[in-house]
Amino acid sequence: MQLRNQRRIIRRPQAGRVVLAICYCFWMCGTCESKAQENDLPDTQRSAEVESADTGKLPWADQQEQLGDLPARRMTHARQLLSLLSIDESQLAGFADGKPLGVQDEETVRRILYCMPRFPLNDLHRWAQSTDGLTTLLTNPNDHRADTFLIRGKTTKIERVEILAEAVERLEFDHYFRVSVDLDNSPHVAVLCCRDIPAAWESEEVLGEPVIAYGLFLKLGEGDEERTEFAFATPHLGWLPTTPNAATGVTPDLVELASLGMDVSLFDAVRHSNRKPLTQADRECFYQLLATLGKADANAIRSHARPTVDLAPLLQDPTEQHGRLMVVHGTARRAIKIRVDDEDVHERFGIDHYFQIDVFIPLGDQVVRLGKQTDGESPTFTNTYPVTVCVLQLPPGLPEGTDIREEVSIPAACFKLWAYQSRFVSAFDQKQLQISPMFIGVEPRVIEFDASRNPYVAFGIAGIFVAVLAVAWFLLWRSGKSDAKFKRNVLGRRREVQPGSSLNDAGIEEQAEPDFSKWEGKEG
Length: 524
Known about the structure:
The protein is of the alpha+beta class and about 525 residues long. Helices cover about 30% and strands about 20% of the residues. The chain has three domains: about 70 residues; about 200 residues, CATH 2.40.50.140; about 170 residues, CATH 2.40.50. Strands 2-3-4-6-5 form a five-stranded mixed beta barrel. Helix 1 runs antiparallel to helix 16 and helix 6 runs parallel beside helix 14. The longest helix has about 40 residues.
């Protein structure tokens, strides 16, 4: 009996270990999938250590390179900045009021346009007045040169002005535009001098389009007190289209964004940076889109958005997808808070942080292969694909962290197709970058898992549980069967009398009566 008990003690733990091993395998499958997906996340976000100042920081965090050696003190008027850039009061006084912009004004206009890219946008935002105050300029325009106004209106005329060849090398641009605008809520007209206009306007006759701009007042043109032409210089002409137009690439989604205040012309710069890391050229569009959607009604955006992400056109022809509204549905693996230290972003948009969420969207039966290789040696995605979504805030059910797993649904606009370092892709080619769509979205919605809504999931889980129990029962049955066989073949044979032998030779000790030698009892 003692030997048989030992036999069972040895066998049964082995059966238990096999059952535990099966359960462990199920757990490891999920873990391995998580680790495999984790390899597709941006390397800059991979560390689980305490977030440093540069974690996830975008390349436009510091504008100092643009501003050069401009003083740190806060200026109160554009004239102060123009003076620092060698445009003084005497040059501004050279504008002749009462006449249209002409040859006599060209030199000063060109010099101001040359300096305009160095104007901090937060300063223009702070200095800007409403066009309701334009009438004060009619009586004494000299005192208001370079006053800044926020201009809104609709285009009535676009004129391209060529610059003399001898001045092109010095100015670094060979033309500029004069855009005539009927001002909103005003009888007056504005002529906006700018170095660039929306790209779609250069190939199409586009008039009657709503625009927005910060303008520095230059001079009074022709007119009277009832209707006067005001000339301005502006660093950028924003476009707020109100109707879709296939010829100019204005989609219903862009119209929806424009109705919320998004300048859709900013996508012109982003179109040139697809399949590249984030650059300084992406900065203004990124933050303006983030501010626009961060303040938008999530349900309204969801109602206009496509219900799922159509990945193929995003990867194949991203230039046609900027601003497209889609619902990003997938598994959020990381949600990291990114601090924004830029003063102009604080002042203009009220943004001091945002969140970068790395989401894996399901591919279904699609297969995504990066690169041009066809021999199976290029990065291939078969189940999920990584996308990036930036939002202003997280919902209560979505925690921050570098190792999360939450199902989310995020109405968002396509920003660009960006590139970043990925260990998974780098394993095939050290120089190759992961290419993924980047979206700007509203506050995410966390989807709670409910097996009751999907009976197949419940059936699957029940099936796995039954299979594990069946395997465990089978192993225990085999263990019991082995014990019986051991008893029959080993223990039984030890007591079996061999042919030609007697019981005396069987090794069984004779005991005529019970042995009470170890009994400890009390004497009667």
